[in-house]
Amino acid sequence: MSLKITDECINCGACEPECPNEAISQGDPTFKIDPKKCTECKGVHDEPQCVPVCPVECIVKAA
């Protein structure tokens, strides 16, 4: 399973440096998460690191 960034993203960039897998990058028009790289931080952290730093809570589980 991976996470995704919804259209509510305000492009603040807070999430990008938190990802240990470099799965988050600037997209057009918002940041995006590469589902092939996203592991929800498993094996590195107990919880995804990008979710709590998002000021608009737009990082959610991908369907």
Number of helices: 0
As residue ranges, the low-confidence spans are: none
Give average pLDDT, whole number.
97
The secondary structure category is mainly beta
CATH architecture title:
2-Layer Sandwich
Biggest sheet architecture: 2 strands, antiparallel
**Any idea how many domains?**
1
Helix content: under 10%
How is the CATH topology named? Answer: Alpha-Beta Plaits
Element order: H for helix, E for strand: EEEE
- Shape descriptor: globular
The count of β-strands is 4
Percent range for β-strand residues: 15-25%
Cofactor: [4Fe-4S] cluster
GO molecular function: 4 iron, 4 sulfur cluster binding; metal ion binding
Domain 4Fe-4S ferredoxin-type: 1-29
InterPro entries: 4Fe4S_Fe-S-bd, 4Fe4S_Fe_S_CS, PSI_iron-sulfur_center, YfhL-like
In short:
With 63 residues, the chain is an all-beta fold. The protein is globular and about 30 Å long.
SSE inventory with pairings:
Layout: E1 3-5, E2 24-26, E3 31-33, E4 59-61
Antiparallel strand pairs: 1-4, 2-3
What does this structure look like?
InterPro entries: 4Fe4S_Fe-S-bd, 4Fe4S_Fe_S_CS, PSI_iron-sulfur_center, YfhL-like. Its cofactor is [4Fe-4S] cluster. Keywords: 4Fe-4S, Electron transport, Iron, Iron-sulfur, Metal-binding, Transport. Residues 1-29 form the 4Fe-4S ferredoxin-type domain. This protein is mainly beta and 63 residues long. It has a single domain, classed as Alpha-Beta Plaits, CATH 3.30.70. The chain is built from no helices and four strands. The protein has strands at residues 3-5, 24-26, 31-33, 59-61. The protein has a two-stranded antiparallel sheet with strand order 1-4. The protein has a two-stranded antiparallel sheet with strand order 2-3. The mean pLDDT is 97.
